[in-house]
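REQUEST FORM: STRUCTURE PREDICTION
Request ID: SP-0412
Submitted by: Lab K.M.
Chain count: 1
Length (residues): 224
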Amino acid sequence: MQAAAIEGFFRTLQAANPMPVTELEYTSVFELLVAVLLSAQATDKSVNKATRSLFLVADTPQKMLRLGLPGLEQHIRTIGLYRSKARHLLQTCTMLVERHGGQVPRAREQLEALPGVGRKTANVILNSAYGEPTIAVDTHLLRLGNRTGLAPGKTPLEVERALLRRVPAPYLVNAHHWLILHGRYVCTARQPHCDRCAVRPYCDYPAASAEPARPTRRRPHPHV
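STATUS: Completed
RESULT:
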């Protein structure tokens, strides 16, 4: 993707969804951290279903610890890998209480020191909770960066660095959400929906130029 096309790419995404947000449900930074930790190899829908009841009884690290391992497992047992996730989550809660006064730290180094928190999770917290211009590269963004030509790279870190270089500053804070939604609903893995892709004029993917995009009805939650 040529540099001149990038502005149009993100301008189109912004026009369709001016204020993008994560599909995970949360009301505090701690709840966001919990939801992101539980979302590994799980859908946002399944995580939201579990956390709705979990957060009613354990919306702080202290309450989560009082819930204990059996209680926590009972709430999240419908989520894949729930046993290991429960252990990591309680370890994280212990560190939050002992080292950070029960608060989720804002520094990357402190976030990545928490059990189960890697660079991607830290980036989600820094971006979604604290508004920092970071981009968390998951499988959707890795695919999208390479397929569109926006940010080619062999690893998530390579794609992340390329995105940080190439995404224009005015779009950087929201870029993570636009790209993950686009990858999740339009630029899908097995068969991208190029026929209804609003940003296809800017895309390097060969199929994107095969035929003109057909008009689609506006949906309540616009993913482009």
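NOTES: Residues 211-224 have pLDDT under 50 and may be disordered.
Reviewed by: T.R.
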